[in-house]
Amino acid sequence: MSDTGKVGDLLAQIPKGEKKGLPPVHLWNPAFCGDIDMRIARDGTWFYMGTPIGRQAMVKLFSTIIRRDGDKYVLVTPVEMVGIQVDDAPFVAVSLQVEGGGESQLLRFTSNVEDEIVAGADHPIRVELDAQTGEPAPYLHVRSNLEALIHRNVFYQLVELAVPRDIDGQRWLGVWSGGQFFPIGLEP
């Protein structure tokens, strides 16, 4: 079957209804039907057969059925699972709203598929440093083992909000959200 047929079949199998929330992809264990030519670029753009998917509604729909199994990303329905390629993270945190301040501050992120995520114990922020360049790559836990890369402009907002804190004898800069402190870098 062609990739076009696979995507059509996949879309037809997504449960429809009035229910709010995400499908229970963690409960579905259908047969693996192979990889399809779908890729999520580092900037959050979804591609199908090398062409950007222009319909945001379709991207949002696919984003509800993505799951990560080990190092592999799959789109899954109750009866079919297909592998896709993800360059970095499947989501991008594209905006930030700050509510309150200090240790009671809440950081509300919006993803490229319009999910809202409040950083906290269930949705931690982490920062990886590139071993060669030292450039930070900040991430926000979205759900299960899926993350959003925090967009550079949003990360700059976090840097502006950063406050110092001693952790294990080192002075860190970080942000508070949901009663949790998230280190984003060592204080210079």
UniProtKB/TrEMBL annotation:
<protein>
    <submittedName>
        <fullName>DUF1285 domain-containing protein</fullName>
    </submittedName>
</protein>
<dbReference type="Pfam" id="PF21028">
    <property type="entry name" value="DUF1285_C"/>
</dbReference>
<dbReference type="InterPro" id="IPR048341">
    <property type="entry name" value="DUF1285_N"/>
</dbReference>
<dbReference type="Pfam" id="PF06938">
    <property type="entry name" value="DUF1285_N"/>
</dbReference>
<dbReference type="InterPro" id="IPR023361">
    <property type="entry name" value="DUF1285_beta_roll_sf"/>
</dbReference>
<feature type="domain" description="DUF1285">
    <location>
        <begin position="23"/>
        <end position="89"/>
    </location>
</feature>
<dbReference type="InterPro" id="IPR048342">
    <property type="entry name" value="DUF1285_C"/>
</dbReference>
<feature type="domain" description="DUF1285">
    <location>
        <begin position="90"/>
        <end position="184"/>
    </location>
</feature>
<dbReference type="InterPro" id="IPR010707">
    <property type="entry name" value="DUF1285"/>
</dbReference>
